[in-house]
Design a protein that fits this description.
This protein is an alpha/beta fold. It is globular, with a radius of gyration of 17 Å. The N and C termini lie far apart (about 40 Å).
Length: about 220
């Protein structure tokens, strides 16, 4: 059972998502939050938080940072919700620890697919618009700390190749085809890179790849 927390300041939006999700046999809506502070307080019971970027008080990005900084919430994955697919805060949300983002008018079938993708430990990085947005924002000067190029010294040459392909939005199967290896081997390389770079998921691998200069826009 995938436990979902809905965090959005608009009651109608939460109601719409709840109606869709509660109709699924393998999804449970464990609660609703109208702002980021409530989302952080309720996150412990959730596997995935559907988090609106813009909320009063504590916004979605700050709530994401707080959840990511709490070791007891390590299991929680966050999918940011935005009105526009080129929201200026999306990359900052990924930098803060989100596993991806969705526009609020996403088709129901795509929303459900996204939830299962994130629940399986992957990130919502496949759509071309997401890759372009990440490349754009990763190339800009960051106000916070950036990933140093020397952290890549921890990776083998093959792992650097794999991280670069992840940054271009390739799935494990696509990485396997590109490098002529098995999907299981590709998955192993991704897992090792995650561990060495201290990344929560593929979204943070992408951030690291761009910020360290391994991949350039």
């Amino acid at each position: 059972m995938i436990r979902i927390l809905l965090a959005d300041d608009q009651a109608l939006v939460r109601a719409g998502f709840r109606a869709l999700l509660e109709a699924q046999d393998d999804v449970e809506v464990i609660g609703e939050a109208a702002d980021g502070a409530q989302a952080v307080a309720l996150a412990r019971r959730a596997d995935i938080v559907l988090m609106d970027i813009r909320m009063p008080g504590v916004d979605g990005i700050e709530a994401t940072r707080r959840i990511g900084a709490d070791p007891s919430l390590e299991h929680v994955r966050i999918v940011m919700l935005t009105t526009f697919d080129l929201d200026e805060y999306v990359f900052e949300a990924l930098r803060a620890g989100a596993s991806g983002f969705l526009v609020k008018d996403t088709e129901p079938v795509d929303l459900l697919k996204a939830i299962h993708v994130v629940a399986a430990g992957d990130a919502l990085l496949s759509p071309g618009v997401t890759r372009r947005l990440i490349a754009d924002y990763a190339s800009r000067p960051a106000s916070g700390p950036r990933v140093r190029a020397d952290v890549l010294a921890e990776l083998t040459e093959r792992e650097r190749e794999v991280v670069a392909l992840v940054a271009h939005g390739l799935t494990n199967h696509e990485i396997a085809e590109s490098l002529v290896i098995s999907p299981a081997t590709a998955k192993t390389h991704v897992s090792r890179a995650l561990g060495k770079l201290g990344a929560r998921d593929r979204a943070q691998l992408v951030v690291a790849a761009y910020q360290s200069g391994l991949v350039r826009p």
